[in-house]
Description:
Strand content: 5-15%
Domain Helicase ATP-binding: 1-78
GO molecular function, one term: hydrolase activity
Keywords: ATP-binding, Helicase, Hydrolase, Nucleotide-binding
Protein name: Helicase ATP-binding domain-containing protein
Largest sheet: 4 strands, parallel
Structural class: alpha/beta
Number of helices: 20
Strand order of the largest sheet: 4-5-3-6
Radius of gyration: 31 Å
Organism: [Myrmecia] bisecta
Distance between the termini: 62 Å
Amino acid sequence: MTYGFFRAVSTDDTHFSKWGAVILDEAHERRMDADALLPQLSAACQARADFKAIVMSATIDVSVFATSLEANGMPPPCPVIEVPGVTYPVQDVWWGGEPWVPTADGAITNLAMETVRVFNDEDQGNLLVFLGTIAAVNEMVSEVSRLLQHDKVVTVRPLYAALSDVEKEEVTAFSDLAKYPRNKGKRLICISINVAEAGVTIPGITAVIETSWEMDVSYDHVLKGKEQFAAESGDHETLLAIYTAWVGAHKSSSWSAENGIKPGVLAAADQLLGKLDKNAIALLLTDGWIRKLETEIEARLGMAAQLRLVKKAKTLTVTVLAVALDAAVDMVHRRLGSPNPSGLVSSGTASLDAHSGTQHLTALQTAPAEQIKGQFGSGQAGSLMLLARLILTSTPMWVYGGFLRDLVLRGETHANMDLDVGLPKEGGMTIEAGLAAIVKQAQAHGMAFLRQSCSDPRVCACWFSTLDRSSEVEVQIVDAYAFAQKDARVDFDVNNLKLASDGSLQIKSGAMPAATNLNQIIANVQAKRLLVCKPAREVTDRIKKMRERGWQITYPC
C-alpha cells in the first residue's frame, strides 16, 4: 500500500498492533508520509519486542541516514543488511532540438511519433514511457495505437493505479507466456504516469522515454472552482453553466469571488444576453420544430448533423454544427406557405455558383434587422432569418466558435472571428471528403462551426478544388495575430472580422488588404491569395510544412 494510505489506516494505532513488520521501500525518495512514519515505527520497535521496521533503499547513504535518526532521539543505528545486486549498463540519449513542452499544441502527437521512432529503432524488447497525468497517458495510448494500427506485433497499454487489477497484470506480466500465450512474438509499449517510476517493474523493458513532466501539487482554488463548470461540449456550454449558476446565486459578487470568476465578466455576459434578446438573435423554436429541422438537415447533408438551440430564458449563445442553411431557409418558406415569401433569398437555384450565387444572398446579408422583422415577423421565422444573416456574413469560410470566449468570458468589447480555409494535407479533396474531415475535427475538439450550404455543390466545392497542389499559392503576412493551431490541416486566414458586443460584424483595422464582403473573400480565395495572420516564426513553420507536403508557395514577404 502507499505511504499515505498506511498512515491513514494506522493513525489510531501507535504501536501498529495489526502488523508484525512494516517495510518502508525507496526511503531515499524522502516522501513526507514516510518521514512522518519513521519516528512512529521507532517508538513501536521500543514498545514491542516482536515488531520489526525495515527501511529499504538501493542508493541511500546508510551512515548519514542512521546518524540522522539517532540525532533526532531515536535508538542507536540499527543493523545494516546489504543485499548485492546486478547493475546493467544504461545509455542516456537526449532529445535533440527544442525541449518537449507538454502544454504545447500537438505535444502528445509529436511525442507519439518520437515513441514510434524509438520503438522501431530498438527492433526488439519492450518500451516504457512516463508522462505526468492520467489524461495524457490515455491520449498518448490512443495516438500511438493510431500510428501503429497496422502493426500486428505491437501491443500498446496504459498503466496507472486507477486501472483494474486485471488490466495492470496484463502489463506487468506481459512476458509471462504461460499466463498470456497470445503475447508470444509480440512487443509491448507501456505508457505510465511518472508517480510509478520508482516502483513499477515490467520484464523485458529495453528502453525508457522519460519526459521529465512533473506535476504541480499546489492547490489552485480558482482553477478548482472553474473546473466544476467545464463542459466537454465546448466553451458555449461552459459559459452557459457559469451564467446559470451565477443567476441561481442571485448574481452575487461573493459567489463570483468564491468560484474565481470576475463579477464584471458575468455582468458583461448578462448585458450581452439582453442585447441578443433585443435583436431577436435568440431562437424561440419548439422542441418539435428543432427535431424537424434536424431531420431536414440530416437528409440534405447525408451525415449526422447536430443542432443545439437553447431557449430564450437560458440563451447565452447559439451553437450550430454543420447546419445546411438552405434547409433552414426552405423550412421557413414552407412554414409561411410560400416558396419565396420575401424575395430576399433564392435557395436551391441551379445557377447558384461562387460568383453570381452570392448576389442572390447579399440582400439578406445586408438587409436591416427591422426589414427582416417586417418580412418574416419577430417570432420564430424572423429569428431564424436573423441567424441566417449572421451565418451568411461569415460564409463561405469556416468560423471558429471560440470568439464567444473572448467576447463573454474575458469581457472584451470585440472578439476576433477567424474565417479560415482548410488546406488538406494530401492535396485536393472532394467536397464530401472535405466536409467530413472538418466536421470530424469539430466534433473531436468540441468546437462550434457555422457553415453555409446550398443545393449546387459547386458553391462549396470550389474551396477545395481551387486549393490544391497543382498551382501556386500566394501567401502574404498582414498581421501578427496568433490563434489556436490545428493538427488536421494547415489554416490560413483569408479575412479578419470582429464581432462587437452588440452582435454586429466589423472589419479588423490594420489588416490590409482586407476582404470587406463576401465577394471579396471569394476573390481572395480564387486568386489563391491567403492572408496569414500569425507571428513570423509561426508563418515560417507553416510554409515549411506546406512545402514538405508538395505545395508550390510564393512568399513575397
